[in-house]
Amino acid sequence: MDGMDHGHGMGGMASPAPPSSSMTNGTMMMHHKMMMHMTFFWGTKAEVLFSKWPGTNTGMYYVSLLFVFALAVLVEWLSHCRLIRAGGSDVVCGLAQTLLHAVRVGLAYLVMLAVMSFNAGVFLVAVAGHTVGFLLFGSKVFKKKSDVDDKVSDLPPMSC
């Protein structure tokens, strides 16, 4: 036992950075020359959700922005809609609610992963999508008076 380091001091075992990557100006350079930003940036050359998507085509970048916007609106719709009606079996209603919750959380995580591309345009359309979705489905602006009074919300009450 004497003279053993047990890994506490790491006795000369420094872990060098992997040779296939290096850090430059907040950007990680991978061995296949892909740029991964570590800070927010403006531009149409970004990877959103999938490898090499939208690529270098500016038109596809705008399609990806539209996709993220639609995902954010869909998350808000699922957060505020009443797809399950009372009167059915409690077990079936509970399972359906659980499934809808899983879909909503999965889509919300997709929006979060898109924002993690650190592209400022993606961030802005995600916030705009959640805002428009809440305006359409969560606020009192587009609801009938009877819908507002009858609905028992899962969300905490907000005063306007």
UniProtKB/TrEMBL annotation:
It is a multi-pass membrane protein. One of its GO terms (molecular function) is copper ion transmembrane transporter activity. Coiled coil: none annotated. Its main location: membrane. InterPro entries: Cop_transporter. It is found in: Membrane. One of its GO terms (cellular component) is plasma membrane. Keywords: Copper, Copper transport, Ion transport, Membrane, Transmembrane, Transmembrane helix, Transport. Residues 1-21 are annotated as: Disordered. The chain crosses the membrane at residues 60-79. Belongs to the copper transporter (Ctr) (TC 1.A.56) family. SLC31A subfamily. PANTHER family: COPPER TRANSPORTER 2-RELATED, SOLUTE CARRIER FAMILY 31 COPPER TRANSPORTERS. This is Copper transport protein. It comes from Malus baccata (Siberian crab apple).
